[in-house]
Amino acid sequence: MVSKIYSGNQSEPHTLLEVLTELKDSEDLIDRFTPPAIVMDREIATKDNIHLLEREEYKYFVVERPNSLKEFASEFISLAGFTESKDNHQGKLYLKKIVSAAKAKVLVYSEARAIKERGKTTSWEQNFLEEINHLNSSIQKGNINKADKIWVKIGRLKEKYGSTATNYEIQLQSNSSDPRRVESLIITDLHKKSCKSEFPGCYVIETNYTDFSAEEIWKFYMNLNEVESAFRSLKNRIGNKTHSSSERWSDRGTSVLFRISVCYSEKYHL
Question: Which of 113, 121, 221, 252 could connect to 61 by a Cys-Cys bridge, CB 3.0–4.6 Å?
Fold first, then answer.
């Protein structure tokens, strides 16, 4: 187990070479014949660092910098060729894998992330979704199935929620044997079409694991979120229990960091 605390003014991209060197020198951690896969965020994933990983023959997973999204603007606008999946909280996720030059890129559109990035996770929108989903549940249970009555209820919701409701397209799914009977609603989030401007909820994962499926690549990269979440809690813990002295911060911080790193490793890998 290796851990280290850098000074607050340390340039993150420049720490990668030192980290890789320490990993190689730690015989207890590294099987030299099977180097570990490196998962990095976009702040460290510079071109030089990618070349370093390739030169040292490491496998890696990184999120590309935002300007790379423009390369795939048409794909994110249409979502053509994407497969629908679920994130860790059962939210809708759309994935598309593109392989080129011994690398794979996974285009990702997350509805939950889009709402968060737009800053529109309001109670008003949540209430609308709860009511329209409640109506959809009633239709699926057969409590209401006549199109005219359903359109009246949809109209009332649109009138009640105004511009919030216009962000969603509502269509009726009719019974194949009896077109007059409605089986369910088709609810489409139109927010995803706004990716052509600021790309909310969209990102690109790059890896040299070309054999993995799009979902496997996404899940592997999302391990970084678990680590970052653990370290956010860790920083709060250290901040609350250390003094302002840099010496005491270093001694206590390093000790706590190592202990929690060991606990994390035991929980997820043993």
Answer: 221
Q: Which amino acid is at 126?
A: Q
- Strands (E) across 81-201 are located at 83-86, 92-100, 103-110, 168-174, 182-189
In 111-238, DSSP assigns E strands to: 168-174, 182-189, 202-207
- Centroid of chain to Cα 262: 25
Q: Which bin fits 52, alpha (ψ -120 to 50), beta or left (φ > 0)?
A: alpha
Whole-angstrom distance, CA of residue 202 vs CA of residue 85: 14
How far is 194 from 105, CA to CA, in rounded Å? 22
Q: Which amino acid is at 225?
A: N
Task: For residues 259 and 158, give the distance between their C-alpha atoms in angstroms, rounded to a whole number.
Answer: 54
Q: Which three-class secondary structure state does DSSP give residue 108? A: strand
Instruction: Give the span between the Cα atoms of 261 and 22, in whole angstroms.
Output: 16
What's the whole-model pTM score?
Answer: 0.59
Give the span between the Cα atoms of 82 and 63, in whole angstroms. 18
Tens digits of residue pLDDT in 41-85: 777 878 888 899 888 888 899 988 767 788 898 898 889 999 999
The Cα 208–Cα 45 span in angstroms is 14
Q: What is the pLDDT of residues 142-183, one digit of tens each?
A: 899 999 899 999 999 988 888 778 878 899 998 888 888 899
Q: What is the length of the chain?
A: 270
What phi-psi label fits residue 53: left (phi over 0), alpha (psi between -120 and 50 degrees) or beta? alpha
